[in-house]
Amino acid sequence: MAERPASPNRRTNDPEGLRQRLVDTAFAAFTTRGYHSSALHELKREAGVTGGALAHHFPTKKALGLAVIEDRVAEAVESTWITPVRAATTTAEGIQEVFTTIISELERKGVVSGCPLNNLALELSREDEAFQAAIEAIFLRWRTAIADKLRADLRVDRACDFDFDAMATLVVAAYSGAMAMAKATQSVAPLKVCGEQLTSIIRNQTQQGR
Amino acid sequence: MAERPASPNRRTNDPEGLRQRLVDTAFAAFTTRGYHSSALHELKREAGVTGGALAHHFPTKKALGLAVIEDRVAEAVESTWITPVRAATTTAEGIQEVFTTIISELERKGVVSGCPLNNLALELSREDEAFQAAIEAIFLRWRTAIADKLRADLRVDRACDFDFDAMATLVVAAYSGAMAMAKATQSVAPLKVCGEQLTSIIRNQTQQGR
DNA sequence: CCACAAACAGGACGGTCGTCCTGTTTTTAA
DNA sequence: TTAAAAACAGGACGACCGTCCTGTTTGTGG
Known about the structure:
75% helix; disordered N terminus; Tetracycline Repressor, domain 2; mainly alpha; 9 helices; DNA-binding; homodimer; Arc Repressor Mutant, subunit A
């Protein structure tokens, strides 16, 4: 007989859900504590996952990190930056909205952990080619989306000698750097300042082109 | 009677020199490979220092990291940014000069390791309060120096509503972010673009204030 | 010349981390 | 129904790393 050995703890295989839970936990840990400072045994505990399950889905830590970048970090940039900017009526308004949203979010949380993409870019891009390629692709999509929006702003009227790609690069750089300073000083002040400066500059230059 | 045991390797005590050699090696390692990715046994080998000597000068790795930040990183910001900007005739020219210097230096080396301050800021500022305080102080000096130079630019003529501190923050943020992108893409293009954009913006705005 | 502290040598020790291995359970395919 | 693969449990193993400890040598003040 041996009717289900006392049926102590029934197990339900849920490969997709477990994988998602793992990547979610790893994303939170990697973007706040950092990749190297996050031990796998901590992730296992936080996600409620055993070593066997982890090894089954991600044979190595690098595989988990790559999944975090390609699945979560890319999505984070998409939802917090690209989508709002595309939806805004003008680039300047979109950027302003992104900054205010992020700032209020940070003030609510009380701590500044930094930009997920930037954090992992500085820690991992020089460590492995796969990491670098994944991160570079996200930066490219980010810049391209802003440049396209800037182009759309002015094409309504006429063409001018405004350098869309250069301005998009400056926006991404200023945001990343401002977030880095915000993390270093644990204050949203750099973000507020840079957000206002950027929108003011874009408004000036697009006005000028009319 | 035991005349100097074969005098195999004469030892010369040089506390200051050994300390400098250690901090130099650690600075190079921490700013290129990262703090956590640099093992002490590697630093010992690279600096030609034994464990006892290391422990004597720096009882813990954190103490070594703090010395690197306070001694070398602060000096690097001073020599590559603050001094050239102060010496330039105008802020825009100073910034342009800093960017071109750094870009040609990177092209000569062939690899982009990132801004030392920014690298350590993102990795360590949230890990220890001493790290954060030291890094924050450097950021403050950096921003203040640029803001002072901007003030000096315009005080030659008359006062205006130009926000010096905000522009200085934007400059530091844009540079840090551009260097982060340069590191992620292993290309100096973001630095070139942001350098040109920044100087162009500053020239426009200071011209406007006249 | 002589104590005494500073400067350094060299290695041991405990803890941690990533990986892998063996076994068990669940699901799928035939 | 049954064989096989996928999904998971749980822990062992080896490597690595930061710290500390005991000894030896060099400099210094009296």
